[in-house]
Amino acid sequence: MHKRTVYEHNRVAMCSQKRALCVATVVLAILFIVSLIIAYAGPQTDCPCAGEKPTYLDEHGRINRTRNIIPVATNNELFPWNNVRLPAFARPLRYHINIHPNLTTLDVKGQVTIDFQVDKDTYFIVLNSQNLTITDKMIIADKKNHRLSIARLLEYPPRQQLYLEMKDKLRKRVNYTLVMRFTTRLSREMEGFYISSYKTKDGETRYLATTHFEPTYARSAFPCFDEPQFKARFKMSIFRDRFHISLFNMPIINTEDAGFYMGTGLLRDEFQESVEMSTYLVAFVVCDYQHIRAETARGVSVAVYSPPDLLKQARFALDTATAMMDHYERYFNVNYPLPKQDLIAIPDFGVGAMENWGLITYRETSILYEPEETSAASHQWVAVVVAHELAHQWFGNLVTMRWWNDLWLNEGFASFLEYLAVDKVMPGWNMMEQFVLDKTQPGLNLDALTNSHSISVTVQDPTEIEAIFDTISYSKGASLLYMMEKFLGQDTLKRGLNDYLNTHKFSNADTKDLWAVMSKHANHSIHVKNIMDTWTRQMGFPLIDIKRDGGSISASQTRFLLSPEARSPNSTVHSLPKSPYDYKWYVPLTYYTDISDEEMVWMNLTDVKFEIDPTASWFKANVNQSGFYRVNYDADMWKALIDTLKKNHTAMTPTDRASLIDDAFTLCRAGIVNITTVLELSLYLREEKEHVPWATALDHLQTWARFLSEAAPYRLFLEFISHILEPVATSLGWEDTGTHMEKLMRSNIFASAVLSGVQSTVTEATEKFREWMEKGTKIPPNLREAVYSAGIKYGGVKEWQFCWNKYNTSRIPSEKKLLLRILGVSSDPWILQRYLLATLDRDRIRPQDIKIVMASVSSNPEGQLLAWRHLKAHWKDLQTLFGNGTFTMGSLISSVTSHFSTQYDYDEVFDFFHHIDVGSGSRSLDQSLETILLNIHWVQKNEEPLYSWLNGKVRYRSSLSVVSSCMKQRSSSLQGFRS
Length: 979
Fold this sequence. Notes:
Blueprint: H1 4-7, H2 17-40, E1 90-101, E2 107-118, E3 122-128, E4 133-141, E5 146-148, E6 150-156, E7 161-170, E8 176-185, E9 192-199, E10 205-212, E11 233-241, E12 245-248, E13 252-261, E14 264-271, E15 284-287, E16 290-295, E17 301-306, H3 315-332, E18 340-346, E19 353-354, E20 359-363, H4 376-392, E21 399-401, H5 407-425, H6 431-447, H7 462-467, H8 471-488, H9 490-504, E22 507-509, H10 511-521, H11 528-536, E23 542-549, E24 552-559, H12 564-567, E25 586-593, E26 596-604, E27 608-611, E28 619-621, E29 630-633, H13 635-648, H14 654-669, H15 675-682, H16 691-707, H17 714-732, H18 740-756, H19 759-775, H20 784-793, H21 797-809, H22 813-822, H23 829-838, H24 850-858, H25 864-873, H26 875-882, H27 888-897, H28 903-913, H29 922-952, H30 954-959, H31 961-969
Parallel strand pairs: 1-11, 17-18, 18-20, 21-22, 23-29
Antiparallel strand pairs: 1-2, 2-8, 3-7, 4-5, 4-8, 6-7, 9-10, 11-14, 12-15, 13-14, 16-17, 19-20, 23-24, 24-27, 25-26, 25-28
Site (Transition state stabilizer): 474
Domain ERAP1-like C-terminal: 618-932
Organism: Nezara viridula (Southern green stink bug)
């Protein structure tokens, strides 16, 4: 009422002159103070004044994700906990999760009960939550069953954290129970708790709900302490309808009626409590699958679940898993601690598989195998992935890394042990020969970039964690363990692993704990930590330069980098990270000669000299490529090795021949070895009859072909590849018979021969495709890649549509995967463009398969630019589909751009991504940009000498005239090789 005179329209507001001056003074003072605060207390570089770079941009001008910020909760209050990691003083002891996923509405209702203690008196706890709506909360003190008063609950979504503050202190060593009710939605992305679907043989769509929590997605399914060191026991209750089953890490103990929901009678499945484990290993599935079952020698139940009509394809996985369980129990001398081991095929799955304890989830292509329809390569893939995930049940699940910086402890060991296990169970598969091909060589390739990272790497943010699930953690980690096994011995390694697992079981460990037990079991004669720290705590690896003077060998070590500029001591192109060892290593240098057996000398952060028999005609270092380093020889030594390969290549093992090929091609790429040396070495391949050397050579030759697709020597280079491929293709024959290794080799050679234009192979493959398409003649599994490629590459729309229809109707996952790759080899840009557009429709191509399509099209010279334009045009759609947190975006960038070899292409990629936040793909982007620069440099340096060498080999040109003529007639259809 007393303000009426101010606000009524028929009144005039008045005040004294003195009061007006006071008000004006106060207002001006406030404005002045606010101006000072804005000028000096705010972020000074958010606006790039005077040429200064904003703090939110990194050195490349992209968004800096490590920028310090002040956290503000969703209600605009200050979020008191300013750390991406949870406080260590609160420890969960037990979870009880009740959850009801509705597969029709996609709504999820749940309740989690967490028993916990605190190690010090505190008013608050912090835990993780992502995209959950908390509907109710309470904390109870166990002893008095007293409900405590919660002062406030704050949420900070950028760090996916909840802050609970109490009115009274939580006391240390007192049992508390936190109860939270929540709601959420089943995700459509392949992470957290998400919806998946499959089609029955009758075309009906069926739905299932499944989980994938590694590394940081458990928090999106239920509130939890979502860090690996917070191990706890888990109890689970799942509500489902009567047409489904539910699965959990542990066996079901009771099912009861739970009433009706939306007219449907629900059942409640209650599961046995788990052992202590990390949140990322929790898994649960609601589906309508069926299963087959077996038992291990100790009576542990092993079962494989799949859609009913695919169950017959699960037998191999079941038999392999049962045998592997027995093998690992013997190898580790530690019993598997759970009563059952389930393996389940998931239709939509972002990775190959996930090692959830007792309920391992697999992509369908990683677990299903049909003997009459699946190639030897896909057969082996299933065995390797099953072995990998089962190895994790001990190494990763029983003993878990304390934090993600030691991810390699999980993945490196599983990637190493998978090959040992398959080699034991399938002795004719020569798995340790293939280990070098599949692990060592890819690890060396990536680690030679300046944008690599050390194995033990500091990570905090979930996006950073995603980024280290890469070749370094997996393949380099495995390769270092293989090297360690060689210098320690198999028995010492096994004893050390047994001690490590028993000491830390149901707990956490880090890298130094592993080195300690290994040193102990080596009787401290080898200081394992001192040696291995030089390999895990600094990025990269050494190049060993070998020089010979009669019987004297000099070996020197320098860090190997592919970039010549980065190797220069005066380089300013790359600011290389400081190394605690100045990029020197403890190197176990192994070697042998034509007249001596394998020997080893240590290079202890230094160079070394030693003596050999002066009558030896050749010297080969890094026996079977068991060491994680590259070797370069002086010119005379290279000549002696090449002469030996040409005269009698069997004087060396297949793995050593592969090692020489891999080193020679890579050293040429780095500008260290002359290209003519590599080409002369390659000529011996006309006599090579083993898979591993050929697979190594083809990988490099195909890579070169992609770089050269716009260069003058391209066609001559394809003719050269055809020349060296023709004899082995002829000798292998078209019967799908022989050993496992022969089948692998036949498939690889024929597919490469078709794409490089070996006329006899193209003619036969094209005829077989015609008979398949017109008469339904069945093609043996290991010939299909070559036959399908010939039909698609040298055919047209009719052939492509035929294979597309086969893809859509096939019930064999491995066949569908093969067809997806082959459909990208078409020579028709219109077809390729249509194919790329199909990736935008998840009903036509599943999101998990988009990378296969884009990698196939981008490795095709007719599709290189199409794939890049597609990635640019639909970047936001793809980012929405996969999210910034997954490493899928990084792998898409690499697969589409890393074969570019012109400055124009580099500028396009750099400019497009310059101000785009690619999340966990940031390192992949940097690696791709570096790779493009390397490609540009290599082509510029080698284009002319390569052309001259190829043009000068007249004796080869005459024998290739038929191929050359064919290529000229179909010039528009020429392309590189499969990725």
